[in-house]
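Before relying on records like the one below, remember that each one covers exactly one chain. Contacts with other chains, cofactors or solvent are not represented anywhere in the record.
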Amino acid sequence: MDVPTGFDAVLHPPARLQIAAVLAQAQEAEFALLRKVTGASDSVMSKHLAALVEAGYVSLRKAATDGRQRTWARLTPSGRTAFGRHVKALEALAAAVASEPTERQTAVVKNARRTA
């Protein structure tokens, strides 16, 4: 089976896919929320966000709130486009897998043909 068109290796890791899914539904999200959603540590979350920023999919904004520095993330227009394409590619992949007979189903059919 070929990799579907639109599959994005930058977005595919589960934490990055979760980040993009949250950001696709919001204008922006605070670092702590994204960390909570993904279950990632601060350092791992920073690395995922850095990869998304490097790809041009996310922009970061830092602001002081209640005397503390906070980081906010948002999807860029190209990030939204890439996320939409990646979701469609995953849907196509899932549909292709669902439509292909399993090995067991194929073996049952072959066995039935032999005994008929």
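The beta strands are 29-30, 58-65, 68-75.
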